Amino acid sequence: MGGLFGPVVKQVVSLLEQQVRDSNKLDSSNKISTIFLVGGFGESAYLFKEVQAWVKRQSYKIRIINPVFSWSAVVRGAVLHGVEGIVHTRKLKQHYGVVIATKFEAGLHDEEDSFIDPYYKTKYTRDNVEWLAAKGDNASNEKVISIPCGASFRLGDNRAIKLSLVGCKFDNPPLSAKHWMVDALGTVTCDVAKMPSSAFQAKRSGLGFIFQDSASRASFTVDMKVGSADLDLDLMHAGKPYGKVTVEY
What we know:
Low-confidence stretches: 205-212
Helix content: 10-25%
Number of domains: 2
CATH architecture of the largest domain: Sandwich
Oligomer: single chain
């Protein structure tokens, strides 16, 4: 999460620190006891955790409260004070995408990025980005971006799939994951073991047998919502959810 919101969170904590210090100087007998995190970014679980950590480091006796629907505080305040130009939507400040595998093409892809898919027995390359949300798009908690995914497994393989989430702040994002304009944002882990057996297609011999070194392939989607403060991801198969997808930043 630090790669996405770290600089903003540091600025928020710095401002809070200044406010608490100034308030204590004015009246040391009536110190700040509670901080409310409101507004669109106030809903961020990451911001909440970092502010709590700052309070603990400073040994302050301050409660941190993250109200439900804290964004409405901004709207109500704007209405009460007659402020025009209320923000109805927020714009994405960068492109969002995932690193994907495509068929290897000699002369186009680097050999070091290649691998043999155990299901298709075909050479693929890992150095590709599929851009899913464009810079300037509306950031809405209601808009769902479906990421079609597929993964091949041998018998006994770990069925936790990792996807690399990337971003690009430039107008024209490149297709190579190794390009200097592409930033690594986090790793998305999908535990496809939660899905039913019908989600896996087994590779069989011509006689219908499954051998010890045979492979299977899972098809699924990751539904992503890009909000103003967080990413929300669900593991989906055949239109049904199979738990939340975790993100490590």
